Amino acid sequence: MLEIKDLHASINGKEILKGINLTIKDGEVHALMGQNGAGKSTLSNILVGHPAYEVTQGSITFNGKDLLALKPEERAHEGIFLSFQTPVEIPGVSMVNFMRAAVNAKRKYQNLEPLSAGEFLKLMREKRKIVELDNKLANRSVNEGFSGGEKKRNEIFQMAMLEPTFAILDETDSGLDVDALRIVAEGFNKLRTPQTSAMVITHYQRLLDYLKPDIVHVLLNGKIVKTGGPELALDIENKGFDWIKAEIGK
């Protein structure tokens, strides 16, 4: 599904990514862990086409297409979704209108007819149940007045509505209490299929206890320095990153 080769990238002239190589197959969930400033969020921003970041070397292929040649909206329509670390509020724009515009824009890209108002509201009710999103929240402006947990739940609701094939969760667990974390994680798990994949960026094992990633990567100083199974995340939880630094320094 996703293949990244020798990716180098910078922002404001400062190199952040220094040769990322990563392959994610259909149905796989990969966890990306690392200290602050290692380049985790930079990688997610590059995948969705954030204009502030410059790719200076390397390639990214998504389902056989050159991802770097696609505009941000085209990447979204092709099936890439980013759940933001800090979702923004959009006052004056209702969730209903926001999501209907997004869903129908994707359908237009796929040469499908737009959903009618009735069809859309039926879909919205079905997807809302997945993440236990209150109807009152769904009828308000996007994220306006939402708690941190409600914003993150709303992100997974948007993911359910758009049905991406590749989802990026960028520290979706930050600021969540135990109950909100469970609801968000269970909502994500309900959306998993053998054809969908994900990259989960996190500092903590608690989210991975729910999501159960297939592969865990450690990103340090702009490079993936270690890859393993779920047990690698447990080692990091117990010992931090210093042992990995010592290992790669040998």
Tell me the number of strands: 12
What's the helix-strand series?
EEEHEEHEEHHHEHEHEHEEHH
Main beta sheet strand tally, sense and closure: 6 strands, mixed
Classify the helix fraction into a percent range: 40-55%
Overall, the morphology is: globular
| Rounded average pLDDT | 89
In DSSP terms (H or I, runs of 4 or more residues), the helix count works out at: 10
Q: What's the alpha carbon Rg, rounded to whole Å?
A: 18 Å
The CA-CA distance between the termini, in Å, is 34 Å
Percent of sequence in beta strands: 25-35%
What structural class do helix, strand and pairing data support?
Answer: alpha/beta
| Widest sheet: strand ordering | 6-9-10-3-11-12
Low-pLDDT windows of residues: none
Describe the structure.
The mean pLDDT is 89. This protein has 250 residues and is an alpha/beta fold. Helix content is 41%, strand content 28%. Strand 4 (53-62) and strand 5 (65-66) form a beta hairpin. It is globular and about 60 Å long.
Quick structural gist:
By secondary structure, the protein is of the alpha/beta class. It has helices at 40-48, 72-78, 95-109, 117-130, 135-138, 148-162, 178-191, 205-211, 230-239, 242-248, and strands at residues 2-11, 14-24, 29-33, 53-62, 65-66, 80-83, 90-94, 141-142, 166-170, 197-201, 215-220, 223-228. The chain contains 10 helices and 12 strands.
Search tags:
250 residues; alpha/beta; four-stranded antiparallel beta sheet; 12 strands; globular
